[in-house]
Specification:
Elements (H helix, E strand, L loop, with lengths): L5 E3 L9 H9 L5 E4 L5 E4 L4 H21 L2 E4 L5 E2 L5 E2 L3 E5 H5 L3 H5 L8 E5 L6 H12 L6 E6 L4 E5 L6 E4 L3 E3 L8 E3 H5 L10
Parallel strand pairs: 8-9
Antiparallel strand pairs: 1-3, 2-3, 4-7, 5-6, 7-8, 9-10, 10-11, 12-13
Length: 204
Amino acid sequence: MFSSPLVLQIPSSMQMTDEQFFEFCQVNRDLRIERNKFGELVIMPPTGSETGNREVNISGQLWVWSEQDGTGITFSSSTGFKLSTGAERSPDASWIKLERWNALSAEQQKRFVPICPDFVVELKSPSDNLQTLKEKMEEYMNEPGIQLGWLIDRKQRKVYIYRPGLPEECLDNPGTVSGELVLPGFILKLREMVGWDFSRSIFI
């Protein structure tokens, strides 16, 4: 099994329709598959146990807040979103306001919905390239509807904050991260989520 993302170039004569791409992903459920704006397939290997545990902590904290807040819904890393560029992306965690979600048809909700979430999180895994993830975050920020994004680099203890039309902000070794006005009252606790211990010089 490969340990780094694979990028497959597809000839223009063999490009898949949205329905074909959705079916392709369904029959390859063990892989996380994205499609960039050039029609190339980006195939990620199955998530390692440690990274998978961190991802579920992200979604768990976000879900608990979302259930209490009641203004939107949370999605896991297996959810695909079709962006305005034609790219299909699957952030590690995301959240959409109810009014945007409810505006979609029932059929759209069953597939890769044709909108970008209001809020996205990407967690850098050992096999991920930081610059590639930053470019993905910038791609999100150019989408209608996006309001806030976090890129978490667990190894370096950094959190990059993205807001549409504003420069990237980097938080160095933060204990928590605020959802600001986009997710009012949501505070992501990094000790629980990514497992860094502020009393030690290494990650646990």
